[in-house]
Structure formats: structure tokens, C-alpha cells
Amino acid sequence: MTVDHPNDPAAARARLTEMLVRTGDEDRAAFREVYRLTSAKLFGICLRICGERQAAEDVLHDVYLLVWRRAGGFEPGRASPISWLATIARNKAIDWRRASGSRAAGPIEMAGELADTRPIATDTMLADEQLRRLHACLDGLEDRQRDAIRTAFFDGVTYSELATRIAVPLGTMKSWVRRGLMNLRSCLDAA
Questions:
Q1: Cα dist. 82→28, 40, 41, 98, 137 in Å?
Q2: Coil, strand, or helix at residue 101?
Q3: Domain boundary among 121, 136, 163
Q4: Gene3D superfamilies from the xrefs (predicted)?
Q5: C-beta of residue 100 within 8 angstroms of C-beta of residue 58
Q6: Which residues contact 183 (CB under 8 A, 6 or more apart)?
Q7: Given pLDDT bands bounded at 50, 70 and 90, which one contains residue 4?
Q8: Which one of 7, 47, 117, 129 has the largest count of C-beta atoms within 10 Å of its C-beta?
């Protein structure tokens, strides 16, 4: 029987980490547990970026195929499990958007109907001290780096769209984000 830890973010994170590591060893039961713990969160990311339910479902399928193949490369000490998974989902959704040539959709009216009102272990994990550290480190970045990272990673905007929005070359935008992420990683590692 699976035991969730909705009130203990550290235990929930440890559980998800363990399941990802076991998934890397091709443990199908662990993979099912990773899906159970994270699918609502990752679907939300895909839906926000894709803007279409069917596309988000298709992208989510691709995300979990990739997770199955890449779980062996997950390094628990390097990134939180939900951050690792969310990055995969974000990148896959952005790839879909680029390939389909579609732009970001407006707010989705039915999103409230899709949401599961029960607390999810991964949501609880994001609410713990790691989230506070992340925001403290983000606040310590240069304004342009912080704004670019927040817009790209939290809103699902591509680097190209960001560069166009603020009228800077694409290479400049990529450099800002890359340097900002390096500074962010240093800050998080020091915390």
C-alpha cells in the first residue's frame, strides 16, 4: 500500500526521489507511482503551455515516455524530482507549440473543472522551504535575468518570444537566462 505524505514535504520529496530512482532501474510499479504522484501537476504545466486539452494529453504521454527512458539519468542530489519532471514537461510542451506553430492560448475557462481539489504530494513539496529558497535566490538575481527566467520557466514563454517582447537579440536573451540559471544554481547549492 502506498503511503502519501501530504503534510510532510521532505517525506513526499524523498518518496518521489525513491520512485524515480527505482524507475531508472525499470521498476514498472515505481513508474506507476511516479505517474500517480505527478500527473496532475505535469498535466497542468502542459495544458498551460499548449492551451488545448487534447494536445496537453498527447504531450503528457510523451513526457512520461521520456521519463521512463531517462529516469536512470536522474541525479537526486542535483535537482529536486519535481523540478526535473516539470522541466521535461515544460520543454516537451514548448516543443509541441513550436512544431504546431501555435501561440500561447488565453486562460482556459474549464481549467477549474479539470483540477483535482485533493492535495497532491508534489504540490505540498513545492510549498516547503525549497520554494522559499528558490524565490529568495531568484530575488537576488539581476532584474533582467530574474524576469527572463520567471517568464520562461513559470509562464512557458520561449526565449525567442522573450527576446521579441523586450527587443533584444535572441543570443542576448539566451545569455541572460543561462547566466541567471548558473547564478541561481550557485545560490541554491549554497543555501
A1: 19, 12, 9, 24, 18
A2: coil
A3: 121
A4: 1.10.1740.10, Winged helix-like DNA-binding domain superfamily/Winged helix DNA-binding domain
A5: no
A6: 140, 141, 145
A7: low
A8: 47
Distance, CA of 150 to CA of 173 (rounded, Å): 13
Cβ proximity of 51 and 96 under 8 Å: no
Same structural domain for residues 174 and 138? yes
Q: Write down which residue in 101, 121, 141 finishes a domain.
A: 121
Which residue shows C-alpha cell 530512482?
A: 21
Contacts of 179 (CB under 8 A, 6+ apart): 145
- List C-alpha distances in Å: 171 to 15, 84, 142: 39, 25, 18
- Give tens-digit pLDDT for 48-96: 999 899 999 999 999 999 999 998 888 887 878 888 999 999 999 999 9
Nearest Cα to 44, choosing from 100, 97, 110, 102? 110
Q: Residues 134, 115: one domain?
A: no
The 10 Å Cβ neighbour count of residue 99 is 8
SS3 107: coil
Cell of 34: 511516479
The C-alpha cell that represents 58 in the structure block: 498527447
